[in-house]
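so my prof wants the structure for this chain in the tokens format not the other one, which i didnt know existed until like an hour ago. anyway here's the sequence
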Amino acid sequence: MRLTLLKSNKSIVGFDDRPFLLIGIPVIALMVEIILFGADIFSDARAAPLVCYGVSLYYTFFFWIAFRQVYVYLIRKMPEDHEVRKRQIFTSLLGILGFFVLDLVLSGFLTLIADPLTGDKESPNFVVKFITSLVFTLLIMSFYESLYLAVKVGKHALEKEKLLRDNTLSQLAGLRAQINPHFLFNSLNTLSQLIYEDTQKAEQYVLKMAMVYRHMLDESGETLTLLSQELKYIGAYQFLLKERFGDAIQFVEDIPQEVRSRFVVPLGLQIVLENCVKHNAATAEQPLTIHMYISKQGDCLCVDNNILPKPAIIDSPGLGLKNIQRRYAFFTTQPVTIHEDGVKFTVCLPLLVSKEIVK
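here's what i got, hopefully its the right format
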């Protein structure tokens, strides 16, 4: 029958501890034997070192396996970084409680089967036995905790490196893919109409269009940008959309001055606005209203729009919003939230206080 208690827990704790079992159990058992039975081994002619070692090995094996399972359980229930202290407290409490339970069970079983081997020798002092068992148990659990945290730190380092690489790639993708190519085509179509209808407005349109694409080029290598700068260029972007859609699109902005010194990811707001336009059928009779405001907590820039679904629209993979989520994940644990209630579609972007990585 397969010994499931000895199976690898690498998928849970991040490392295979079975080699440590093969080495650690015999070594710890020898140390425990010396501490608990040392006097008998070296001064009592009737002492049987192998019997004492067998008893020590018996206790060490079952204590180690039992508390190994306890630790795996605690990792399953409390795996997060902020739960380290809580996990360590539970480890200590279960170590103390587990000692009494296991000692009672193991001692009772040993009494039934091993009395003929141990003869009338006295058991080790209970206090010494308790302290020894508890110290070694906590040392073993600390060993597991240290390895677990070391593996997690290594994984975090790799994840940060991957996020940095993804962030750089997504910045470039913002130039090539996330800014919808159709927008450029539609903008040029709008410009060609304005040239014949209103040359003065056409000139203004060209200036705004140049401002938008200059910003895209200037910000392509930046990791974060000031909200004030992002809003300045978004004003130009909104001008282009208004010229294209006329009264079919409305913008409402409610962003106080005091939050404009916060940071956001470059081009993220433009992708959100483009997403609003892409997925809604706006008309002058049923205009698309895009509202930009600060969340009640003051830590997010939210953009919502009324839902005007396009008929027979092809499902979008949502790459633009996923791009933004990946980029924010590099700088903060605060998520980009996306909510739809059937009436409004809302995206909230975290406002960061600095360019420093806070993860």
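also thought this was worth mentioning. The chain is about 65% helix and 10% strand.
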